Amino acid sequence: MQELKSIKGTHDILNSGIAKWQKVEKVLQKVFASFCYQEIRTPVFENTALFARGVGEFSDIVSKEMYTFSDKGGESLTLRPELTASVARAYIQHHFWQDAPVHKLWYLGALFRQERPQAGRQRQFHQYGVEVIGSALPEADAEVIALACSIYRELGLRNYVLHINSIGSTDTRKRYTEILKKTLEPHKNSLCETCNTRFEGNILRLFDCKNPGCAEILKNYAPSILDHLSSEDAEHFTRVRELLDVMAIPYEVNPALVRGLDYYTRTTFEIKGTALGAQDALCGGGRYDKLLMELGGPETPAVGFAAGMERLILAMEAEGLFTEEEAGMDLYLAPMDSHALNTAMPIAQTLRDAGISVYVDLLGRSLKAMLREANRKKAKHTAVIGDDEIKNRRLQLKSMFNNTVSELPFEDLADALKHKK
Ligand code: AMP
């Protein structure tokens, strides 16, 4: 029979991988809670139209990376390739604006994009992110950027750089796009084929091109969008920078940072890992004041970011931020035979109810094998239950840290273990 394997570009997360994910998830929850953001969970598939409208038809995501299929009713559905559009859809569908003028939301979930898999690029990957919906103020942009950086700081990550830019309001972009087209027209033939297709569709995407020839042309001839901001756009950007400065958050202004998605306005930002390879973008975000209206909701300003979990874990591994496996369970309980299990299982239950983690052998192994296993699992304590223990209702609790043994009545076990936690 043909061996069944996971799909190319998808990965199982196993053993020590789980410990890494849980460590990161714990910090995420802590930081989101400290900023008073609320979690939101949306379905993994949506109507294809949501992403076509919400992400932009000229984006790589929509034009070539989506997992789209028809269900039995003939409806076109898509596995979510990003989460902002889904969150915006939920905001509109549930009339969030009716119970508060601003919503601060966070998410963590699996996304699907049919890209060429490589280190740091998968077909199923995970992003965490936030969306602040309802505030047009630069203070919201600054808070979102500060939150993104707090997560890396809390995790101890050092090798990353924050890039920020403003791509102005829709009018500014329209004006700038015309100027850019005129300036680059004489060099069009020297641009790569992809840039030539993007020239008419979404010329700002030229800044995303990795081709050195194209990058050189842009560097030499493209005007900076920052020189073409309206006075309101410029004021907004200055205020964002001012707030980052007072919060002592270092950044680089990068006028070439335009981001590939159509719905961004004004602030854009990206955090790049400096110890990662080609796929070095850890986090990307910005303001998207037009998205909610484009999806049929009320005109509502919003700002957010999305960050990759797998790349964060790769960056943390590169900096040696995952220590050796933590200690295992509080107690490894070793019953001598099936009769002893009649006593061991209720004891284990009482201890678990008291918040103590207990591992009970379920293989009927020999004492020697059980104690070897307790060692391998890094149990903090072990206790054997046999005929004598059952008769006296006492057992010997052995600490694996310092090899001490204390004899205790069954009913004192919970207190003793709690004390040692
Ligand atoms: P994007 O939604 O494309 O702006 O991506 C935001 C973040 O998600 C990136 O900075 C990466 O950390 C992560 N990311 C995007 N695409 C992938 C992928 N195919 N595999 C792994 N991580 C990804």
Structure characteristics:
421 residues; alpha+beta; BirA Bifunctional Protein, domain 2; Rossmann fold; 8-stranded mixed beta sheet; 5-stranded mixed beta sheet; 15 helices; 39% helix; 21% strand; binds adenosine monophosphate
Mean pLDDT: 93
Quaternary organisation of the protein chains: single chain
Helical fraction equals 25-40%
Biggest sheet descriptor: 8 strands, mixed
Radius of gyration: 28 Å
Estimated structural class:
alpha+beta
**Total number of beta strands:** 16
Indicate the topology.
Blueprint: H1 15-34, E1 38-39, E2 45-47, H2 48-55, H3 60-65, E3 68-70, E4 76-79, H4 84-93, E5 103-112, E6 124-133, H5 138-155, E7 160-166, H6 170-184, H7 193-201, H8 212-221, H9 231-246, E8 252-253, E9 265-273, E10 281-287, H10 291-294, E11 302-308, H11 309-318, E12 331-335, H12 338-353, E13 358-360, H13 367-376, E14 381-385, H14 387-392, E15 394-399, E16 405-409, H15 413-420
Parallel strand pairs: 1-5, 7-8, 12-13, 12-14
Antiparallel strand pairs: 2-4, 3-4, 5-6, 6-11, 7-9, 9-10, 10-11, 14-15, 15-16
Helix pairs in contact: 1-5, 2-4, 5-9
This protein binds adenosine monophosphate.
Adenosine monophosphate binds at residues 82, 113, 115, 120-122, 125, 127, 281-284, 306-308, 310-311.
